Amino acid sequence: xxxxxxxxxxxxxxxxxxxxxxGSAIAVVQGWQLAAMMLSLPFCLIWIYCGWLRNEPQxxxxxxxxxxxxxxxxMRYFLLNT
Length: 82
Fold this sequence. Notes:
- By secondary structure, the protein is mainly α.
- The protein is built from three helices and no strands.
- It has one domain (14-80).
- Helix 1 runs antiparallel to helix 2 and helix 2 (33-54) runs antiparallel to helix 3.
- It comes from Paramylibacter ulvae.
């Protein structure tokens, strides 16, 4: 299956990403580090997908970098706090 087959899901995914981004911003303001990272990672993954779908390399690569940082942050959090 190609990514274009999933183009019909792009707009609902963008709304989901909006909700995740809003939740992440609230988590940052409240000082909930783990929640912020857990909400931000799927946000980045959605935008990586949408970047590939629309062929927007700058959006794709920026979000790949942030996704890697969130994966690192989550691994570090669980290794240090368990």
